[in-house]
Amino acid sequence: MFPALETERKQETLPDPYEDFMYRHLQYYGYFKDSLMLSSPLLRSRQLLFDELDQVNPRLREPRELFAFFSSKGTLQAPRWPIECEVIKESIHHIEWVPPQPEYFYQPTGNEKLPEIVGEEKGTVVYHLNPVPTEGSYFTSSRVGGKRGIIKELAVTLEGPEDDTLLFESRFESGNLQKAVQVDTYEYELTLRTDLYTNKHTQWFYFRVQNTRKDVTYRFTIVNLLKPKSLYTVGMKPLMYSQLDANIYNIGWRREGNEIKYYKNNTDNGQQSFYCLTWTIQFPHDQDTCFFAHFYPYTYTDLQCYLLSVAKNPIQSQFCKLRTLCRSLAGNTVYLLTITNPSPTPHEAAAKKAVVLSARVHPGESNASWIMKGFLDFILSNSPDAQLLRDIFVFKVVPMLNPDGVIVGNYRCSLAGRDLNRHYKTILKESFPCIWHTRNMIKRLLEEREVLLYCDFHGHSRKNNIFLYGCNNNDRKYWLHERVFPLMLSKNAPDKFSFHSCNFKVQKCKEGTGRVVMWRMGILNSYTMESTFSGSTLGSKRNIHFTIEDLKSLGYHVCDTLLDFCDPDKTKFTQCLAELKELLQQEIHKKFNERGEEVNLEGSWSDISLSDIESSTSGSDSSLSDGLPVHLLNIVDELNQKMMSKKKKKKPLQTRKQRNELHQKNKLMPEFKLTEDASDRAELAPTLQKQSTFYKTLENFRSSAMKNEKLSLSESKRPGFTPSCPQRGSTDSSQESAPESSQNFLCSFRPAPLENVVEQPELTISPCKLHCASRCPQASVGQR
Ligand SMILES: [Zn+2]
How many helices (H) and strands (E) does the chain have? Predict the structure, then answer.
């Protein structure tokens, strides 16, 4: 098993883009001609750089991994896939295009067919991905290009030019078709792949068909959707992309489809209800390559191309610093952008407030990326408003929180098989690196400056328009202030943004979301932005699907609203606040009337709990907190089984060694039963001390690789950058209240039999060490 890993490591270590770049850099400036400079002992240190040839004024170079995101050759970091995923070599690219005419919602005729699902017994399987890791399996390791070896041809072999069977494919970034069954000449039943290592979350879809015929009507039916309600029931159409139309006419994604119906699948397996989405379509060309998607795709590669263009732009790169926030489980870079103009004095730099924006924690919500793109396009532009915003704010942006999920085509989860937006309180840094580091970055940012606003961009599968979820503020001094920004935004984008759909109730089940966690950390204006997969019900855009341009405009409106919100002339702010009070009074009256009660609101009406007035956000796209990451669940099951079988047996006489072992195990059990409660973890510390030695070795091994990852930004003494595997005793570790040993124990990603953990540490360190190294490219760099 290990030679494979060695090859990967070699691939990653050669060539060194940083060294290559520096060599060219020095050569360009003629450094190698200057024997005097070369003979300087200072130059022998690669830590030092010289700005001017004539000046001996060295500065520390930027850490290697960070600086070398995009090498001088301009190549992108290829996405890393779980090793069981097959990936085709072709690269998929779509043009950006905005339809000139409005794309209206589908109007049901009432005659739509509800095809009965016949399955593969009566049809022909024409595409089938296998095997797919679902429930019971977990992520182990990753590599560029996914599964090794020759990629099998999954589509059927055509019998000749007359054969008009469609050829399906989805083994590309964000694709997720699991199976296609031909049930009639032009009719196909489609099964979506569930989120990896789970058996649920089907919603997003993205796949390719080839060998099309025009002038015939095809029908597609997705058979394993899980949500009872869908925007497809209120006029949403699927998106279609024709490669020939793109090549010839420069036409991109468009809303297509007829006879659209969303309905319950009657073939009941007794456990779970499935829902179907069916639609018919006529392709525009013969022999075309077409794509279908739930929403405009935006892949990890798309993001990297965008960031590369920013990094290469001599102007933008001056005020937009690109850093690694951390590595995902698969080892993909999670990017952190710091956008701000240099300040004339340190005092002014320190006085800047911060704004934190993030997107794609839910990988199937590509809407979020388009809003983020709109925001970045504007904030990085030379518009006077953008310049002003960069003068007064430090923007911290995490444009893709869950790159692994985006790459593999998940809808909701990371490779831990969990919804990351329920785990923002996590202490499991190794299992949930992207959100652990985001929270930590914000924690440090808060120590440094006020964070005026936090907003995490999402997509919504059952409501139209765009809206915000916020958190009711308990401080009377700032009563209703959290609603001012959303109200202003609704005024700035009245035909897209619905203030009426906003909600500010903090529900128990949402305690682990980014919005609630950041609010509890002290960010008053902490929001989740929900944007529909469909379109608007408001104003001039009523009953029209949103285009990419509509979503991007929201990014601009966020900027515009920030300026209104911070206007030194407080007129707009106070007007909005007065309007909010008025709205709330009306709401209170309505509630009391509904209950048939009289209310006298004079004097103390603001003391009424806002949570009592508002209905919950149960209408939101929520999923309950889903517990420990899947790989840890396996250990829990194993231990539970062992405990059960131990209980049944009569207790034999035990040696002292055996008694000690049992004692160790019993003390370990509570850790697995609880989820992530820090107070309980303290109990584990003594038990796990024994393990800490070898885990320390592991940490040291990894931290040695991370030593170069400290950097300083011009704007801040304590940058918002967090290395993926910070050094022991660094600021990061000290801020975590968890005992190190227990944290380390939980970070053991590959489960090992408990006996081995306690008695034979050397047996578990190797796989864990190698595992971490395999998915943490920095670690392998450190090995050189
Ligand atoms: Zn979401």
Answer: 27, 24
